Amino acid sequence: MAGGRSEVNILMGGEAGQGLQTVGEILARVLVRSGYSVHVTQTYESRVRGGHNTFAVRCGIQTVRAPRETADLLVALNEETVVLHQRDLSPEGFILADASLAMKDERVIPVPLKELSSDSYTNTAALGAACAVLGLEEEVAQRTLRDRLGEGRPKVLELNQEAFSKAYAWSVGQLASPLKLAPALRSEGRLLMTAHEAIALGAISAGVRFCAFYPMSPSTSVPMTMIRWADEMGLVVEQAEDEIAAVNMCIGASYAGAPSLVATSGGGFALMTEGVSLAGVTETPLVVVVAQRPGPGTGLATRTEQADLWLVLHGGHGEFPKAVFAPGSIEECFHLTRRAVELAERYQSPVFILTDHYMADSYRDTAPFAVEELPFVPAVADPSELEAPYLRYRITKDGLSPRLLPGLSGNLVVADSHEHTEDGHMTEDLSVRPRMVDKRMRKEDGLRAEVIPPTYVGDTPPEILMVCWGSSRGIVEEAAKILESKGRRVAAMHFSQLWPLIPEQILHRLEAAERVVSVESNATGQLAGLIRRETGFCIEERILRYDGLPLTPEYVIRALDA
């Protein structure tokens, strides 16, 4: 492209402890502040120190929404990175590495990083060289360094800025810029955040006031983000002794009137299921974030998968209404979390948000959220408007009983984990039991009426319809665009809400396509199985990835043409 490249994929690699995540995040922020769109993916091993890590930043003048397999610029903080990833270079790709590394490859851009900085700041020097090669402005990068490293550590900031400046100046003076980016098209301010940061902010904006958790990768970044805002927003975030305590703390806080969220991963959620059922029978609002990683058991703690749909769909013994969301973008993470809080409060039921490790660690750019225009979620009834006597579980046509908070009115608020009468007291009257079950299940009618239909982009009718959910949205939609550019009639249908599933919203799309393919990060095609159960339509062709790495557009296209 005249004037520079429209897109570059940068892969940074090194050993754990070399500050790779810090300099990678700074590079991503410099790109966003310079007007470019970014998509970040990370890989690291489940060890506290040691092992090989990568930080990939795909950037472009147009919106980028998926990872790419080949790298245009490989920034190697050690020789192992070159050995492992030189095969991942694109045909026009280059390797940026310290000049001391003994490498004979015409694609290597040797920079004297260790001469331009001390050992502790070689990573920052590599960042400076990379910014120069990409044609980014030094002032923007230096300002980003100050914002990221400057607070309370002036000497550390000074040494980092010096290392960056020396490497940047050397690279500008000594190197050609084969990977210089074209001028950015965006001028408005953009935010850079991960999906889990967006979920936490969505919850806070909806009025969540209590969060309990037990640390488990990759879910922990949700409560950790809430902790950063706790003082300013009046939140209580509690690290519990285990997952059972965490979910029950949230149920107790919600019963007392504090909208609550609990975050966990698959193994932790397995322990929470009795508590989820408790929320179902007591009709207590509860939002549960389940960040998926490969199982069974401990599985691969720092890798990604979409294999807990059935676990969440059937989590909790007995029958009670629920809703399950699976956001596929930063914007959906924010707004669907707000919707989850709203539905949990309104329908007095558990609501679930499914993410995964790929989403948790993927930094992406987004427009600022207009939070001033978003209302808080109303939670409880007005005591003055209620029919006397007050019955917490009054049987109603829509299944929604009036919810009051204990101690805030003259009414007695009684809750029981057993089957109960309308006034909340335990009962074994078998004539009451079916009436209470029917009352609770009528709430599902309201939930079904508010289901968000899957998004559909592409040709109608298509030759190929790819069906996906959750984190694979950008990947599958990009794969569809690539195939469309080659003359194929392709469409993508993405589910951001998985339950309730409404056959009338999807069956006509499935039946109109010549070829329907399920694209999922699991071994059994869990969404395809759910669709068959609910609609009778069998998606026989499936693209399934379960090696712990995220799907990519290239992976999908290879599988389609196989």
Comma- or semicolon-separated keywords:
Rossmann fold; Pyruvate-ferredoxin Oxidoreductase, domain 3; 562 residues; alpha/beta; seven-stranded mixed beta sheet; six-stranded mixed beta sheet
How does this model look, in words?
- This protein is an alpha/beta fold.
- The chain has 4 domains: 7-174, Pyruvate-ferredoxin oxidoreductase, PFOR, domain III (Pyruvate-ferredoxin Oxidoreductase, domain 3); 192-373, 3-Layer(aba) Sandwich (Rossmann fold), CATH 3.40.50.970; 380-450, no CATH class; 455-561, Rossmann fold.
- It is 38% helix and 20% strand.
- Strands 9-8-10-11-13-12-18 form a 7-stranded mixed sheet, with helices on both faces.
- It is globular and about 85 Å long.
- 47% of the residues are buried.
- The model has no long low-confidence stretch (mean pLDDT 94).
Biggest beta sheet attributes: 7 strands, mixed
Count up the helices: 18
Fraction of residues in helix: 25-40%
What sort of overall outline do the alpha carbons produce when their principal axes are compared? globular
| Main CATH class of the largest domain | Alpha Beta
Instruction: Say how many strands there are.
Output: 20
Physical arrangement of strands within the biggest beta sheet: 9-8-10-11-13-12-18
Question: How much of the sequence is in beta strands?
Answer: 15-25%
**Uncertain runs:** none
Q: Quick check: average pLDDT? A: 94
CATH-derived topology of the largest domain: Rossmann fold
**CATH architecture label name of the largest domain:** 3-Layer(aba) Sandwich
- CATH H-level superfamily of the largest domain: Thiamin diphosphate (ThDP)-binding fold, Pyr/PP domains
Radius of gyration of CA atoms, rounded to a whole number: 26 Å
Distance between the termini: 32 Å
How many discrete structural domains? 4
Secondary-structure content class? alpha/beta
